[in-house]
Amino acid sequence: YISLHAPGHGAAEVVCMTALGVLLGVPLLTGYAQWWEIVAILLGLVLLALEIFVIPGFGVAGISGIVLILVGLLMTFVPSEPSGIPGVLPRLPATWMAFQHGLLAVIGGVVASIFISMWLRRFLPRLPYFNRLILNTVAGGAGVGGARMSNGITTAPWPVAEMIGRSVTDLKPGGTAEFFEATTGHCRTISVVSESGFMEAGASIVVSDVKGNRVVVRRG
Question: How many whole angstroms separate alpha carbon 208 and alpha carbon 164?
Answer without folding.
Answer: 10
